[in-house]
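Table S2 (text version). Query chain:
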Amino acid sequence: MSEGTRRSAPWPPVETEQPVPHPDAPPSGTKLPMHYDQCFGCGELNGGLHMRSAMGEQALVHSQFTVTEAHQGAPGLAHGGLLACAFDEALGSTVGNLLRRPAVTGKLETDFLRPVPVGSTLFITAKIDGVAGRKLYASAEGRLDAEDGPVAVRARALFVEVTFEHFTTHGDPDALAKFRQTPDQVNP
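Corresponding structure-token output:
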């Protein structure tokens, strides 16, 4: 089946309610802080992606990911797994900031539509598509080198709402203690 005739499954795949942003969700234009300085996606204290996001109009979140030589898969091109990671970060930031609920990725689906060269920047726009109980559905698209550039990657994800005990039960106790001591971060 050619790309022009390929049909994707409906999204969200189940009946959902319209998402309602939390009353404390950041207003449009707000630059979103990193949620944890050790996060591979948005943190500053590791060799990760160093992504930045901002709240947009109409409950959209805009993120940027600049591909460096450290992000290569094939020579001169971004590694597909790192692109998927960038979308996981952008979608997770959208869910976390708009709904203000702790959630983890349950499923992430990516469609790679064109190569993403080293030195390019992906402009990722993400939104929440629906809520069904603890299931939170979100999608995003990434455009090359400009907000209106060609679409290079699309992704959609299912996040599952969890309690903060999920992190205290399954996470590293030392990392959680350090996280709680950082005043700029959302503390469980």
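Notes on Table S2: The CA atoms of residues 41 and 49 lie 5 Å apart. The chain has one domain: 31-180.
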